[in-house]
Amino acid sequence: LDQDSLRLRNLAILWVFLAQEGVSSAKVVVVGAGGLGCPVAMYLAGAGVHTLGIVDYDEVAIDNLHRQIAHKESMVGKSKAEQFSKRFCTGYSEVGFDVVIHVDYSCCSRCYPFLNFRYLLNDACVLLGRPLVSGSALRWEGQLTVYNYRGPCYRCLFPVPANSSHISNCNEAGVLGPVVGLIGSLQALEVLKISAGLKPNFSSKLYLFDGSTGISRTVAIRPRKKECNSCGDCPTITELIDYELFCGSGACDKVHSLSVLPPIDRVSASEYSQIRSSQQATILLDIRPSHEFSIANLSEAKSELAIGSTWLFWQIVLLLSVFVICHRGNDSQLAVEILKKKLPFTRVRDISGGYEAWATEVDKDFPTY
User: Where on the tree of life does the source sit, at the highest rank (predicted)?
Assistant: First the structure.
């Protein structure tokens, strides 16, 4: 037996030789080499998939290593896709890793959370007749389904994109490593079953997992829509489009800075530092959740627990000068808009960039997270 056959002989016990042949000859593209993509690609490589395409624009970051188990500290600042392929080419000699993607892939695994990629990959898979194994995870929860495999595509369920400003990502909301590990492992299982010629578990079904309770459940999703613009009987989508424009969102998980307030309603962190030093009578409202407030805060900041109190309300009304701060300066702008309507005679301003700007411009020792 050759080395590949020896390595995979335990898998041969599970399914017939022809099934393993299907897995070995499969060409799978994994879109996203992060928390989900790492276990997907690692298990597919380990199972004998000989051609893996890895797509990821991003670089390895140290604050993502807790969930991106294929990457190491020595890789920080380097391309995720290239580092992944270099590392696992040495571990799996029979596996070829592509960083330039072609159209001859037999299956796609979506491990990116971005809204525009959901539509892009859906349309591409429908046009090419490929199944799309789609996973996502946020905070304690994860979900998984298979689109375009004898069932609906993503557009059958969501023909119109949601408002991208209402969608959180892992950088903003956090995620537990074991949750992405579980969902990623199940994605790999679905890809292996499809490649082996077996029916996947979650075509036309949605698997849901809640790590906070340990409860998992599977629900049926609506069937394929005949009038779907992508996979329907008379599709109107016959080529790929500008998905950033279509979805109104960028193709990355970097936190974008909102700009909803006029300059007169905003001050920089440096400007607030000067106001703070001048001992002017002001109030600083810190609208972050209490667990973030406990990580680090300015001494004069009033947390969300105090904001609802009557005495603070009257202080705000009487002082006529209020500043609002949050983590990055996005939520604080939205809060200022609300406060200006409720307190029309009070000067309410946002601290641009929030605590991240404070740590950059004023106090470089201020804890960041």
Answer: Eukaryota
